[in-house]
């Protein structure tokens, strides 16, 4: 048996094991998704699916008739075109930042940032649920890493005090604690308690030798003036040393930008492998980004943000007041993990996690698909074991009727499952 066959058998064995565990990832056929109402994609402002982004993109082409299609090289050589430089200046101003550095994806941006910027002797204190790309970057980096419980201020304080008390370089201010957070978390849909975490850091580290980094993948375009994001909404631009804004969610295109002081940008250009050894973003990719930002700053962009927030509130109000919800929640058929942390405000994130018992998310998603509503089941290892879910995303172009109808479909499936559970319990008791 040759090496190719041996490898093929090993790989197939791994896939078979994942399929037996009901965890095999098989992307849906685009023609199937096209027939359904979208409650799954990250196109939360509906810029891509509505055609709005396409029209704005074509306007960019008309404004730049002499564009070169390709970028021709890496950033450190000829790839830094004038159009790219202009967009980075524009994005820095848009987000009220000192400088901006474009990347081909949010994943590339996070890997570059966390593998390059924290130095020997530094520490990274990260939220339990930060993106996989942050984990990959930290693994390649030089700083030691410590996790604190998700959105848990007491855990954050305990970890930070431990770092200070056990490391003289942190106590005397000669080394830095980086704090890695997300604005809206990608699977639970909750938002970081940013003000509380900053206050804890200030009270714990007298030397103020900390730098907060916030990944705004799911809040970019949705909050703040002209959709400038979560940190701008809270007017914390001066408090947050690092921000990552991606363009593949509400902006409807792809790529990302790191917002930081010029010295960090220059270090990334000099040391980040994904900058040095990758072709720079092409004109087409950059034009799509500029097109999206021009929509954000327009009246249509403001209308879409307002409509999206109205739709999010309408979903929660309709869902939580549904006559079947109390029994479904009590029976542990569906849970919304962030619900217990809400105050009086409805969450502003368009991500709504419907957590099911293990191995039941596929059944709920399948029921929705048969009713022509698209949403994605998410299982381990994308989420922790025992936290399977259907991840809903609300969109600006979802109608009230669509929201009402998808809720009825969810409640119908969950009520049927609750009946099955009660029946099984009665049989056991008898």
UniProtKB/TrEMBL annotation:
Cofactor(s) needed: pyridoxal 5'-phosphate
Keyword line: Pyridoxal phosphate, Transferase
GO BP annotation list: biotin biosynthetic process
UniProt xrefs under InterPro entries: Aminotransferase_I/II_large (IPR004839), AON_synthase_class-II (IPR050087), PyrdxlP-dep_Trfase (IPR015424), PyrdxlP-dep_Trfase_major (IPR015421), PyrdxlP-dep_Trfase_small (IPR015422)
A molecular function GO annotation: transferase activity
Top-rank lineage group of the source organism: Eukaryota
Protein's UniProt keywords contain Nucleotide-binding: no
UniProt domain Aminotransferase class I/classII large: residue ranges: 35-410
Keyword Cytoplasm recorded: no
Family designation: Belongs to the class-II pyridoxal-phosphate-dependent aminotransferase family. BioF subfamily.
Protein name: Aminotransferase class I/classII large domain-containing protein
């Amino acid at each position: 048996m040759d090496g190719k066959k041996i490898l093929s058998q090993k790989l197939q064995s791994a896939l078979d094991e994942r399929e037996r565990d009901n965890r095999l990832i098989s992307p849906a056929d685009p023609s199937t998704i096209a027939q359904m109402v979208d409650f799954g994609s990250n196109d939360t402002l509906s810029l891509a699916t509505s055609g709005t982004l396409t029209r704005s993109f074509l306007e960019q082409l008309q404004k730049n008739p002499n564009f070169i299609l390709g970028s021709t090289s890496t950033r450190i050589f000829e790839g830094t075109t004038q159009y790219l430089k202009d967009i980075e200046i524009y994005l820095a101003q848009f987000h009220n930042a000192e400088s901006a550095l474009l990347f081909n994806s949010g994943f590339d941006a996070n890997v570059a940032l966390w593998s390059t910027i924290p130095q020997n002797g530094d520490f990274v204190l990260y939220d339990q649920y930060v993106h996989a790309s942050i984990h990959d970057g930290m693994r390649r980096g030089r700083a030691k890493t410590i996790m604190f419980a998700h959105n848990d201020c007491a855990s954050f304080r305990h970890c930070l005090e431990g770092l200070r008390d056990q490391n003289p370089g942190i106590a005397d201010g000669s080394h830095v604690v980086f704090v890695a957070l997300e604005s809206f978390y990608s699977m639970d849909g909750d938002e970081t308690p940013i003000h509380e975490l900053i206050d804890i850091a200030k009270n714990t580290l007298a030397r103020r030798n900390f730098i907060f980094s916030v990944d705004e993948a799911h809040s970019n375009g949705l909050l703040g003036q002209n959709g400038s994001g979560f940190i701008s909404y809270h007017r914390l631009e001066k408090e947050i040393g690092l921000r990552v804004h991606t363009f593949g969610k509400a902006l409807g295109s792809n790529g990302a930008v790191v917002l930081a002081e010029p010295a960090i940008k220059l270090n990334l250009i000099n040391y980040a492998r994904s900058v040095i050894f990758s072709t720079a973003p092409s004109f087409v990719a950059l034009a799509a980004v500029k097109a999206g930002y021009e929509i954000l700053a327009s009246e249509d962009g403001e209308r879409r943000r307002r409509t999206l927030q109205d739709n999010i509130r309408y979903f929660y109000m309709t869902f939580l007041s549904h006559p079947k919800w109390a029994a479904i929640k009590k029976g542990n058929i569906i849970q919304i993990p962030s619900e217990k942390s809400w105050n009086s405000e409805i969450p502003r994130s368009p991500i709504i996690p419907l957590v099911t018992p293990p191995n039941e998310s596929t059944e709920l998603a399948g029921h929705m698909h048969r009713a022509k509503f698209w949403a994605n089941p998410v299982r381990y290892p994308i989420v922790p074991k025992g936290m399977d879910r259907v991840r809903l995303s609300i969109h600006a172009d979802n109608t009230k009727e669509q929201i009402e109808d998808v809720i009825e479909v969810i409640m119908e499936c969950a009520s049927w499952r609750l009946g099955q559970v009660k029946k099984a319990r009665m049989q056991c008791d008898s």
